[in-house]
Design brief:
mainly alpha
Amino acid sequence: MEKAKISARQLFVLMVLFELGSALLVPLAIDAKQDAWLAILLGMVVSFVLLLVYHKLYWYYPDLLPTEYMQKILGKVMGTVLAFLYLFFFMYDASRVLRDFGEMLLTFAYPETPLFIANALLMLVIIYTIHKGIEVIGRSGELLFMLMFLLSVVGFVLIVSSGLIDLTNLQPVLE
């Protein structure tokens, strides 16, 4: 197996695109109403604490996978159970995202297409991309990031210039 490498910039781009992936489609903190920005900031703080935990674990076990150091920390039985749950969570999350994107495609672009066909085509693209390797994913991510950045700048300028922003909608805070 060859050693594939991506640059720090490509890793950053892939992480940003991952975070933007479905977050642009799913309304975050909708129950918080005008305090949604506070809920998102709180979520960022909690996520940062989790990042610090993962970073510390990486420094303690730089050559082990998370499933391997779970077994080393918690013992063989509990570590194996937690590693299985860890893998199951990511399999569930990947299948959920695939289903969501398939349904989004059917809703907006291909209403007459069966969900199975849309998901099968998405899976073929995923399999092909994974077969090509992380370097190709990183380079593709850089291209997509430029497109997303351009679209977000244009969208921001259009929203600000339209006069739709009313900062009084953020009040009252913590109603």
